[in-house]
């Protein structure tokens, strides 16, 4: 290739045409030759940098675009340099580059939008909103900026304004699927389930559509939604629009599928964090005397996690264990935050820190183990764990299953029932088994006095079945079994947790389809835990859901003295109640098929003497069962932490399942 300007420009146009067609490797070959021949041909240098960026060769891309800026600084060069820095996880440098782009072109909407994204990542919502407004002012039909602004408004509780902005995003770009997904999620949150389903289906987001259908107890067409959801995971980049926990309710989902879904979700949703270098760790302190443990969560307040965990935190041996809590919880004052405040345990507030700053803060504390209490549950910030702020990360309590991505957790705490050793392949994490049950219980949990049945709108002489699980855990098959029980136990009612009008009306209609008077469904309002446990004592028999069973709901029932019938499945989430019943000494209430589940519940409903025997046994278990021995659970948990650390420290040791024996 000669250095004739006309020939150089002709070759550049040829490369540009290939670039525009997405043939980046072919374009790269031509541009590389151009740059060798004409090192100051700024358009070629810049375009080659962009091509390297698109080929994920980010270091080379940075070098070339910086060279182009030296030759001739333009807003577009600075903008593309900012994009490259974002991929290199150099947000400070990216911010400078985008600001330089705006200096040269004050109406550079894309640069302003990306500045908003940086501020959003730092939880600086006011600044993020400002930059999105700037982007929209510069480009009034810029759909992506409207979508991002809608996200900020939603997350700052400006919901009506968010809906209006998201509608504009859809108006200006009907193909921007995330706008539909965010708006549909808001409809779902507001109880507008059919609108949410329709909008999710419009963009092919069947994973979220089945979740909304379950929350609304809209079961017509649910089987088709389930099939489409599972199929979509192999056919599309669906992972940006759902959380793996929402798929647990789909019948037939295998543990291996669930593990692999978690892995794919993490690879997509946490792509940027997974590409970052882990934060540097301080030199590890000796663990001979004091093992340093951190707990990471957004639920350190009146939440199901704290209902279970409070007693453990109070009973930790702080002479031998350094305990610190890392919280991105909402700021609340309640009984549980007061209990935490009374402890000699420091709580580090991460809520206003970026994920990187949070990880660096944790890393400075020289932990041995960081225990993530969230997993893929709502409001999680798994990016923090992705940056590996401790030598060992343990997944426990919040998420009933594997995260699928090895970088997120090294171990998962289970027990011989929820995670038997023969299920090890179901998990990307190494199993660490407690001797009795993985779920802690707080033996200080108070139970209010038992109210009268009349106070709770329950018939005085009826046999009361109950299930205080979220409605999204119900399935048509399980609900049909409950209706069959009502049919064959004539003087009986089914006591459920109330929800919005749509799912309750749908359940009443479903009862009619099954030949049951809807008056026999009695819905109870949410109450504070102490009062809820008091009223639970009015129930005769608790009925578990399937395939996602009761977790805290089950231990609440057992603590209140109500026997529970469950069905064992293959998923972690299908085995929790079985673990609780085994630990409390009632393994005979665990079944393995729908028919056995139904027959056991029916036989118990027709044997009040047996029900009373079970209640008596549960009453005695409060002082005799390992399930409710908070002190012993804490000592076992501490032994398990030491066993995990010991295995970590063994040179060239494989991470084998750890099975803790009872003492």
Automatic annotation (TrEMBL):
Pfam families: Glyco_transf_41 (PF13844), TPR_16 (PF13432), TPR_8 (PF13181). It comes from the Bacteria. The keyword Nucleus does not apply. Keywords: Glycosyltransferase, Repeat, TPR repeat, Transferase. SMART domains: TPR (SM00028). TPR repeats lie at residues 75-108, 143-176. Its EC number is 2.4.1.255. Pathway: Protein modification; protein glycosylation. The keyword Phosphoprotein does not apply. Residues 285-445, 452-637 form the O-GlcNAc transferase C-terminal domain. One of its GO terms (molecular function) is protein O-acetylglucosaminyltransferase activity. It is an enzyme of class 2 (transferase). Belongs to the glycosyltransferase 41 family. O-GlcNAc transferase subfamily. PANTHER family: PTHR44998, UDP-N-ACETYLGLUCOSAMINE--PEPTIDE N-ACETYLGLUCOSAMINYLTRANSFERASE 110 KDA SUBUNIT. This is protein O-GlcNAc transferase.
């Amino acid at each position: 290739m000669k250095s004739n300007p006309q020939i150089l420009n002709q070759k550049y146009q040829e490369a540009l045409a290939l670039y525009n067609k997405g043939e980046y490797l072919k374009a790269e070959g031509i541009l590389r030759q151009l740059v060798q021949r004409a090192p100051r041909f700024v358009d070629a240098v810049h375009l080659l940098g962009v091509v390297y960026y698109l080929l994920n060769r980010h270091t080379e891309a940075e070098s070339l675009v910086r060279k182009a800026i030296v030759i001739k600084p333009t807003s577009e060069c600075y903008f593309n340099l900012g994009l490259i820095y974002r991929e290199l996880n150099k947000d400070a440098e990216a911010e400078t580059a985008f600001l330089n782009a705006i200096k040269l072109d004050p109406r550079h909407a894309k640069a302003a939008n990306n500045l908003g994204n940086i501020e959003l990542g730092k939880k600086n919502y006011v600044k993020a909103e400002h930059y999105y407004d700037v982007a929209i002012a510069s480009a009034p039909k810029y759909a992506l900026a409207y979508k991002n602004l809608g996200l900020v408004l939603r997350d700052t509780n400006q919901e009506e304004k968010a809906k209006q902005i998201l509608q504009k995003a859809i108006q200006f770009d009907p193909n921007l699927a995330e706008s539909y997904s965010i708006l549909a999620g808001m409809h779902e949150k507001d109880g507008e389930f059919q609108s949410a389903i329709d909008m999710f289906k419009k963009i092919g987001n069947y994973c979220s559509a089945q979740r909304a259908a379950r929350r609304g107890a809209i079961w017509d067409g649910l089987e088709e939604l389930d099939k489409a959801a599972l199929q979509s995971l192999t056919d599309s980049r669906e992972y940006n629009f759902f959380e793996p926990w929402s798929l647990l309710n789909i019948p037939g989902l295998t543990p291996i599928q669930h593990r692999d879904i978690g892995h794919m979700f993490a690879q997509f949703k946490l792509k940027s964090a997974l590409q970052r270098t882990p934060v540097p760790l301080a030199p590890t302190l000796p663990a001979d005397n004091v093992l340093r443990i951190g707990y990471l969560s957004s639920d350190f307040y009146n939440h199901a996690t704290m209902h279970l965990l409070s007693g453990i935190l109070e009973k930790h041996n702080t002479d031998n264990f350094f305990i610190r809590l890392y919280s991105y919880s909402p700021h609340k004052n309640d009984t549980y935050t007061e209990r935490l405040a009374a402890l000699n345990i420091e709580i580090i507030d991460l809520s206003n820190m970026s994920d990187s700053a949070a990880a660096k803060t944790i890393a400075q504390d020289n932990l041995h183990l960081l225990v993530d209490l969230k997993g893929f549950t709502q409001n999680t910030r798994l990016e923090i764990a992705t940056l590996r702020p401790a030598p060992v990360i343990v997944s426990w309590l919040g998420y009933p299953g594997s995260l699928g991505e090895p970088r997120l957790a090294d171990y998962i705490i289970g027990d011989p029932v929820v995670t038997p050793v023969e299920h090890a392949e179901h998990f990307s994490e190494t199993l660490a088994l407690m001797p009795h049950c993985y779920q802690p219980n707080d033996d200080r949990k108070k139970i209010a006095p038992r109210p009268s049945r009349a106070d709770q709108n329950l018939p005085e002489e009826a046999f009361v079945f109950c299930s205080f699980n979220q409605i999204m855990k119900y399935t048509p098959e399980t609900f049909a079994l409950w209706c069959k029980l009502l049919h064959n136990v004539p003087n009986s009612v089914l006591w459920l947790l109330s929800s919005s009008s749509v799912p309750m009306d749908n359940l009443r209609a479903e009862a009619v389809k099954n030949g049951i008077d809807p008056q026999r469904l009695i819905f109870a309002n949410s109450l504070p835990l102490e009062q809820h446990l008091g009223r639970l004592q009015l129930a005769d028999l608790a009925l578990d859901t399937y395939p996602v069973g009761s977790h805290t709901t089950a231990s609440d029932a057992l603590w209140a003295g109500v026997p529970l019938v469950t069905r064992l499945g293959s998923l972690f989430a299908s085995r929790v109640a079985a673990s609780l019943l085994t630990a409390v000494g009632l393994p005979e209430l665990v079944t393995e098929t729908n028919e056995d589940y139904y027959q056991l519940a029916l036989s118990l409903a027709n044997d009040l003497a047996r029900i009373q025997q079970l209640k008596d046994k549960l009453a005695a278990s409060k002082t005799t069962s390992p399930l409710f021995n908070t002190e012993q659970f804490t000592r076992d948990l501490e032994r398990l932490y030491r066993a995990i650390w010991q295995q970590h420290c063994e040179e060239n040791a494989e991470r084998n399942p750890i099975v803790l024996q009872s003492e």
